[in-house]
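Submission sheet (multi-component)
Chains listed below:
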Amino acid sequence: MIILGVALLAACTLIGVFLGDLLGIALGVKANVGGVGLAMILLIAARAWLKSRGRLGKGITLGVEFWAALYIPIVVAMAAQQNVVAAASGGPIVLIAATGSLVTCFAAVALLSRLSPGDATSEAFERGGSIVGGSADDELPARPIPAPAPTVPAAKE
Amino acid sequence: MLHMIEHVFVEQSLVAAFAVVGALMLFSNFAAKRLTAGRVHGSAIAIVLGLVLAYLAGLYTGGKKGVADIPALAGIGLMGGAMLRDFAIVATAFEVDVAEAKRAGLVGVVALGLGTLLPFVIGALTAVAFGYHDAVSITTIGAGAITYIVGPVTGAAIGADSTVMALSIATGVTKAVMVMVGTPLVAKLIGLNNPRSAMAYGGLMGTVSGVAGGLAATDPRLVPYGALTATFHTGIGCLVGPSILFLTVRAIVGG
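Outcome: structure written.
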């Protein structure tokens, strides 16, 4: 049943956010600490458990994957409600602080992905893309799989 | 007639949002294919268009929520709000390759640490360069460079004044917008093309909206991995901002 998938997703989200709130209180922080991340881990665990018992039916999968496929449109809606005017009129201190941290963090990503190169060849990785992509390009042929070369581009910093 | 159409949009706000966003994506995919010959992702164009519309709407309404401040498009606020955004992010975890995520766990933790510290230092130094000398203002602006939620949470906890808070939030929002637009441009350069680098990226960039938008515009395959680390980032920032980071700044500048 599709609703079971949606309900599973909802339950994981609620429990995760609740745990995040508890963690925030325990740490004395006025914020949710990692609630969504905990919810993701719960969902990963739930999938593994259902799969091991052979109960990961088509309906459950569809119920969850429908929402994964809506991810990009939801992000577009999110972009459309940002306070871009405030961002654009923040003045030099805002621009310098934001650009500075952006460039530094991009450089750090480059450094980390060199120190610890990953690979982009797993099947789950490909499949995940087609779901989360929401078949955004469904008239196009499947994306070409990138060559499994070590993933370090000739980056210049 | 126009009034009646508007009435339907107001009444059916979420349904109207689905239709409007769908139309926007259709247009963006068409533009990606025809105008850029597929070189730019349709979703990247859609996100940038969304930001442009948010800017125009902000000028027009004077509000803070982009197009969601226009009554007929209020449903965009619900569709792209924190509730459904987090729901969809959690759903992407269904596609995570567990083995790969586990292998990249350490990288993710290192990235989270750096992603909190580096922007804070840059933000704090910028604040000092612009003439802020008290620990509260320096910490609040530095925290804003982590994310636009960490900034005000930290500022409120340590008693920053509202001008500094506004600067702090603006810094975070600007960073989020820059991450959304900048990521697809630099993805190749920084090696962002596999689960492991996506986890490092999520931890370093932090801002959930920035990471969500940046990865969606770059490559949907990366989304679950980046989101997994990014969602811990704000919580960690709110944890260390008003505590360790503030105390350190106060020890350095005194007061």
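Remark: Chain B touches chain A through 125 residues (CB under 8 Å).
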